[in-house]
Specification:
Helix content is about 45%, strand content about 15%.
Length: about 650
Amino acid sequence: MHEESLTSDAAARAGSSRVPAQADINAAPAFDAKAASAELLELAAVERVICVDDWYAEKEDDGENVLAALAEGALLPSDWEQIAKVIPGVALLRDPSAPLELLQDEVRDRWVSLDEGGREAIRQIVDDRLGPEGVGLPGEEDEPAAACLRDLLAGSREFLTRSLSDWRRQRAILLADGKSTLILFDRDFSREGASQNAGEEEISGLLRDAPENWRIGLLTHTVSPDDAEVEAWKTLSQQFEADSSRFLVIAKGRLSVSADGFPRMLKLTLLAPALERLQGGLAEAVNGTWAEAIDKVGRIDPYTLEAALNGDRLTDGTWGPETLLRIATAFTQDSVRAKLRADRTVHVSSELVTSLSRVKMPSASNSDRVRQELAEIERLEYFESADHLTELHFPLEVGDVFAFQKFADKPHKFEQQRNGDPAVSESGTLSLRRSGEEHYLILLAQPCDLAVRADGKRGNDLEFVRLAPLKSPAKGRIITHPGGGVATSFDLPFFFEESGAGVEVKLSQQHYIPLTALDMCVLSATGEGFMFAEQEMPNHLLPNWQERFKHLRAWVAKQVTAYRAMEPREMSGKAADQITAAMTGTVASNRLEALISLSHSAISYGVRRVGRLREPYRSALLSRMAQRDSRDAFDPSLIDKTKA
């Protein structure tokens, strides 16, 4: 405390001698759009840029600015009087009550006969009133975009501006000179007497006629600088029926509002063909290689194949075709990589992508559409869907995700409320009402502990297994990478399919769940924890799990018989609830509920399997759990850590 007082006093005495605030040395420098554009063109080896716009067409001086100012009522009667002094013989301009459209007609009729001095004098009157920008004529939005394009792209490369008519006259010569070219077309050429889609028509022809070293962009005011560019590109791609990778749609709003967004689209325009070649190279390599891989799998002799499909793989519950896929994938990856390494086009395209990606761009968040598509792709890397897990009855595995939900009805009341006969759904389960939101938990047990042996039992006689809840992170925190640095949790990105949001695995909030419930999720046709005492064995069960099914079915029959003998209808209070919980193993878990149906001789748990975490993330999750379980404990500090 004393030291702090001295410091404060010294600072007060120093007054203005305090060290002034310093600039942030880590602050990012201002983005130079012109330098970035020049660097992109240099790296892409573009020798020439051509801009085709009706703005560059010669315009007849018809007094458009003056007429627009009159039509909009932007001039005062005093301005009319001054204009009347320049134009001899006018009458309406001297009449303050004259209609605006008649004033406009009068000036238009006399404008042609005025000399340049008279026209300039009238323009000066309008500029004095409205400023150089005037009232904003139709098509004048092209002027700032055109000026910005010249500023960004001229200087470092040959830069040509052409009207549509000039371009059409010189088209053949420009296409034949061999120069690597970026050409940017306006969409609407109505000011030159062409159609509003003339730019599209020119691009359609160029996609067929232009050399491979030409890149094409459609610059337009008719789309906004967001996903509308993508939608317009998709529409035109179908319309052109040509190589759509050679052109992109760019909103002129990127130029007229801020030049910072244009280099990003310029980069994409230059990269699009290289990206297309990379996709094509991969497709070509994979198409041929899959057939080769299948052929290699087919040449494996029965002795080797039998050994691969049996032994430990069968004991651990691996589905035979999954093992074949693993072998075929190994063959395929090796061959595809070899073909890609030998493909010069792939190397050249990859080098261009790498070099252009190094050009620094201002940080900008991806659009919702882009984020959604990337999240869907990345989610496939993290999670397996429940479909094949359920249909093929894949055995339990660490990283299996389960949804828990409470029942709306309690034992034994649900059958009484349904006249003793709850409905059976098409999938063969009871139609039991649920209440509240679903809660997700993930399985954390060791794989060897989960393995079912040949007798349908687990070697350790394990009855309960640990699961940890998946919870949304604290408000404002976004999960983008797996793992995370906190020992008591594990981050999983992209858990929710619709939003792409991630979750935290709360390792410190573990629950113990009876394995019978989770095993039933494996054995049911819907992934739900459910089984009839007389249920038929499903297809696709592995041998060990066929035996496991028999054990569980016998257990269900035994529990139902015992429950029936207790006459639950006669029990008062919560006795039926407590007995059900004891008989189904749900006493210790506040997440899981169970119901016993006497009318259908069935047991139903409020849980279903909804997915599985893939490798290597599930092994990393298991390692994090092991680290937490084995963490060191220390004696508490002698100094109280509570706030004074």
